[in-house]
Amino acid sequence: MKNYKERTEYIINEINRRTENKRKKRAAMERFTYLAACLCFTVILGCHVFGQLESIKKTPLMKINSAALSELPDPRSVNDISAYVSQIIAITSPDKTGIYSEKGISQAYIAETQTETAPESKKITEEQAHTSLSAIPYTAKTKANEKSTVISKKLSAVTNVNTCAANSPSTVKTCISRIPTATDVTNGNEGYGGDENGCAYDWNDMSVYQKFDTIVFNGITYLTYGNVIYPESLAEKIGDATAEGFDTLLNETHYTNAEIFRIENMPDSQSIAVRFEDHEEYYVYTGINN
Amino acid sequence: MDNGEINFRRFLSGDENGMAELVKDYSDSLILYLNSYVDDIYIAEDIMQETFIKLVLKRTKFDPEKSSFKTWLYTIGRYTAIDYMRKNKLYKIISPDDCREPESGFDTEACLLKNERNQILYNAMKTLKREYRQALYLTYFEGFSNAEAADIMKKSKRQTENLLYNAKKALRTELERRGFVYEEL
Questions:
Q1: In whole angstroms, what is the distance from residue A268 CA to residue A254 CA?
Q2: Which of A1, A90, B81, B158 is the most buried (most CB within 10 A)?
Q3: Residue of B52, B58, B106 to mutate, testing the A interface (most A Cβ within 10 Å of its Cβ)
Q4: Looking at chain A, which residue has its C-alpha nearest residue B51?
Q5: Which of B170, B146, B167, B166 is nearest to B158 (CA)?
Q6: Tens digits of residue pLDDT in A44-75
Q7: What number is the ipTM of this complex?
């Protein structure tokens, strides 16, 4: 049997030892928890990064077979534009799924090719094909100025063909929207002669106010949005003018004669009415120099 | 606040003499009580030390308003002894016929008892059932009330009273067999 002193020493030593063990266990558990948290964080981060890399790998970048592209016929000699576009897509899309992809710099300049036809005419007629090809000179000229390669000209000229539904349901309007090139982006020049939808209409299919939307009279430039005014609201004729319009597709300038009328209770500098030659409507033009 | 609680708090505040006082005051009696469970005075001594260690490491459970320090100490001692018996499979059912005669010669437990009367009683109690021994030890040797003994043994007061009644009866018979007469029993 132990004496009191021995018992006391044993008890105190044992208490200290167990307390120390408990403290060490707690510290080890804290370290383990910290390491486990770090490991989990690393794994999650790794999965995230790896997933990003995988998604980038899966994103198809457009590879253009230059040799095959150079064998394409001249767009101006093509009759079936849809077949020609299909041919382009086949060359530019390695996985045969299309030329679209969401990421990558090269995709930024891939033109969107879409065909929308009016319900009455599903087929692209020869006339429409001709209409679309009429844009080639403009595009080619622009491209030449930009010192682009011949291959890129062909590609952009054809892949940017948008067949849009026109105002008249009975016709199909073929519009050209040129690819914004690197030069355009650098110069901030992203306009290319079309409307707000990126379409440049054929001259003959446009209304007269669309053809001649700007008139200069008595040193004042007037613009119209196509609003028509009744003859009862007119005061008197104040002069004649020659309106000038520019065909962005054919790169031609057109002229026509117009009569200028004063609108009742309206100063000339603010608004005038214009009647074009061979037309009955009086279009309201608003001065922009005010 | 009794003396045991004061010494206990002294030790908790860093004074190791507090533990020395506790050991001096309670260790012997606790060993004898625990011996009634394990029937081995050396194992009882180990359990006593383990009891004091648990006392410190699980001090948050001590509620001075609920029980005295001594009651709490004996309760922990009892649980520690039961844990030990469970781990070492020392639980056994002992019939009165199996109760052995006290061994002759040097008796270690006798050293822990202060006077001859207690030694005679303790030796007579060894032949009794374990529960009788425990109840008698708590009330006769340690001076616990019936309620405190019931609290330590985790029995109801009525159960403890019945236990004590039967224990006294058995002890009286044993003492008479040995030629002693105790009027207070």
A1: 25
A2: B81
A3: B52
A4: A11
A5: B146
A6: 999 888 888 877 766 655 555 667 667 777 77
A7: 0.71
User: Nearest to residue A98, comparing CAs of A72, A65, A60, A71?
Assistant: A60
| pLDDT greater at residue A169 or residue B77 | B77
Using an 8 Å CB-CB cutoff, list chain B residues near A11: 19, 23, 49, 52-53, 56
Q: How far is B58 from chain A (nearest CA, A)?
A: 11
| DSSP secondary structure code for residue B143 in this structure | -
- For the stretch A15-18, contacts whose Cβ atoms lie closer than 8 Å and that sit 24 or more positions apart, written own/partner, are A15/B53, A15/B56, A15/B57, A18/B53, A18/B57
**Assigned token pair, A195:** 């409307």
For residue A98, report the phi and psi dihedrals to the nearest 5 degrees. Answer: 130, 170
- In angstroms, what CA-CA distances link A172 with A119, A163, A165, B22, B137? 10, 7, 6, 107, 114
- Residues in B lying within 8 Å of A, measured between beta carbons: 16, 19-20, 23-24, 27, 41-42, 45, 48-49, 52-53, 56-57, 108, 111
Tell me the C-alpha distance between A10 and A16, whole Å: 10
Whole-prediction pTM value?
Answer: 0.43
How high is the mean pLDDT of chain B?
79
Residue that wins the pLDDT comparison between A92 and B97: A92
- In the block, tokens 């007119």 appear at A234
Mean pLDDT of A157-169: 40
